[in-house]
Predict the 3D structure of the following.
Amino acid sequence: MTSPNTSAGIQARGRLRVLTILLTSSLAFLAPSAIAPGLPALQADFAHLDNAAFLSPLVLTMPMLFIALAGPFAGYAVDRYGRRNMLMASTVLYGLAGVSGLVVDSIVGLLISRALLGVFLAGIMTSVTALIGDYFVGEERNRVAGLQGAFMSLGTLTFVVVAGVLAEIHWRVGFTLFAVAFLLLPLICLSLYEPERGGTVQANAAESRPTLRQWSTIGLIGALSFVFMIMMFMIPSQMAFFLVEIGVDDPTRAGLAIGLWNLSAGLASLSYSRFRARLSPESIFALLLAVGGVGYLMTGFSANFTAAMIAMGVGGFSVGAFLPNINLAIISRTSMNVRGRALGALTTSFFLGQFFSPIWAVPIAAASSVGHAFVVSGYILLAMSAGFLLFVGYRRLR
């Protein structure tokens, strides 16, 4: 018979485990948040270099490219060597790569350190999301996935506001935020364990070979994630430039605007389990794409800081619920033995979209304005929403 004290201890460890997963998930968007408010100042410091206008945004997005490149390898390593081991190693190396930005004094060196940061972040995100799929089931899994999205968004809000203040000192000071990774190591060691993989050796071997149908579904989900993140990453990569375009050149205000976007996203993530109880995943995607499209149109037509802030509050709702919805779309379609590789593939598409975001937005902005880039993207998101609505309607007719 389990004593009350033993039961309370088990519950406390369970709560600590959830908290550790959530806090570690908040590192996901620290990579761009730490330097986004100071990006115009970084660009000004390297203005003497050829193509500075192109290279400076790459400092922001370089981690996204290497997360995308490392995603499949991280997924294989998570399945092969274990979630917990990968998480611990990746967290240490992520912290070291992040704080190196304090001392690296060339833009090439910054790009290299940011590339390494992306490799280690791929390991963090793949392993921690796989643990959610391994530790939890049913409504509890939906709840924790929603909380994960909330912590990612609200963590970004905290980091980007602090980074905006630090950017007032110097754009380089924001790299101190990466030391947060080292504070999480004791929690990871104390609270997380490596899940056991049940079943016979033969069953596990069979499960380790994903079917063609599984990979086709994962590919479609990944394509959606890729396009969506091309659009959504315009906020951290282009918002500071848009505010300068409408006469707001204060880095702190840029941080507040991006922070409000993430606050709205965090609130949407907290509500995700309620949405999922009432709507299908496809209906949720249709809703989120529509809200994102409206938010971007509002952003593009904003003429002052107040209007831009309202747009951030509206549009941020879309990305907040998108994260748990697409993660669970992968988790619910894969077994434990292939989950790491499937999530690695999703990580690749997710962050590859972030890397390509400036490549999409900068040419449009150069031809017209940053505001016009938001407007064009808004119409594309609305068109994607209409596509999902047609799909949902077709399924209901059948």
In short: Confidence is low (pLDDT under 50) at residues 199-206. The longest helix spans residues 138-169.
